[in-house]
Write the structure tokens for this entry.
Amino acid sequence: MNVHEYQAKALFRQYNIPVPRGKMVHSVQEGESWTRELDSPVYVVKAQIHAGGRGKAGGVKLTKKKTEVGGLVKEMLGKVLVTHQTGPEGKEVQKVLIEEGVNIQRELYLSILIDRDTGWPTFIVSTQGGMEIEEVAAHSPEKIIKLGVDPSAGFKPFHGRVVAARLGLEKELVAPMVTFLSDLYRLFIEKGVALLEINPLVVTGEKTLIALDAKVAFDDNSLFKNWDVKEMRDLAEEDPLEVRASQYGLNYVKLDGEIGCMVNGAGLAM
Ligand code: ADP
Ligand code: MG
């Protein structure tokens, strides 16, 4: 199950993982009233859809003027956003996130997933933040660093120090990186996460770390023990046929064309 960026960031806050101040809104009015409360040199309006690549598709807008935020929200709500992850039909924007602009010094890439070969939770990091990791893997695989965590021992501070060193972080950012990864690992395990991606993870001009983007996908088999996570499901973002099938406990994967495929396991079926 996927969730929106604003929901992932709310979860990050619960685990003390630093994210920009922000709020999700459904309307221009709500957006304007939140912006009055938010004081920042730069305001960022971000389309909330279950797809990445929003920046390049016009789904992330920045302005220095508080008075322009309402207009940006108006422009974005109801728009069909086509990114390289939505397919040509695009996705309609029904919610936007308004947040403070961050003073970006460096953009890094960070994710956690289960490595299929080792079965271990594994950090994937790269200095090439802001780029698609698939693209980095294709053109400069040496810039991708993998670090597995033995689940029986759990996360240890040295994992954080190794990551900090490999990313070439300054000394003062080593301890914050250890804390950042330790909190992230705890979230990953406790909430039954299948994939967690922060792209970009930012080093700010003030020498802090902050998660600027947040993508979290949960393992459907763990939802029964995390009701708070289950409640984040946004059916409007999912394919209506898949939603109907899931109501009956069926694994159904919508494909292009006219042939449906329905068996006892989605992976097996594929
Ligand atoms: P996507 O991955 O869908 O394109 P991101 O959240 O990664 O969306 O945003 C795209 C880019 O927009 C980021 O790489 C960053 O440069 C910029 N950006 C996003 N949020 C902020 C913010 N709060 N402050 C400053 N810049 C931002
Ligand atoms: Mg991103």
The longest helix spans residues 174-190. The pocket of magnesium ion (ligand 2) is lined by residues 52, 199, 213 (CB under 6 Å). Residues 19 and 167 are 20 Å apart (CA to CA). The chain is about 30% helix and 25% strand.
